[in-house]
Amino acid sequence: MDISDAVSEENLEYNPNKDFTSLNCWQKARDVKLFFYNKIITMLTSDEKFNLGLQIRKAAVSTTANIAEGYGRYHYKESIQFYRISRGSLYELKDHLITCNDLNFINSDILEEGTKIIEEAKRLLNGYISFTFKKIK
Fold this sequence. Notes:
It contains six helices and two strands.
């Protein structure tokens, strides 16, 4: 989907059928966010819910929020910067997932499940970054 399909700056007409929620990369990042909220944070001890849990929540929300914010930007280069921030948050979440496994908050099955979701989200986001970058030229 082309970013310019959703909002036309010339006539400022908005198409509600084409926004960031229709992006596959946003949908998969949302899956990552919900995975962490539903399967990881609930496994933390009460102390870690306020420490590691806070870091996880910030990174998880950042994955989808930065895709949404980037999508709302008019210039492609600016959009790409937000998508890259989202990608960085996915890497951060992978580190938190490994930490949770290292500290025995989660087992190896949950680690593997989370890693697969994160890797798929990164793949889709990298593809969308490449797609957007080609629009610059």
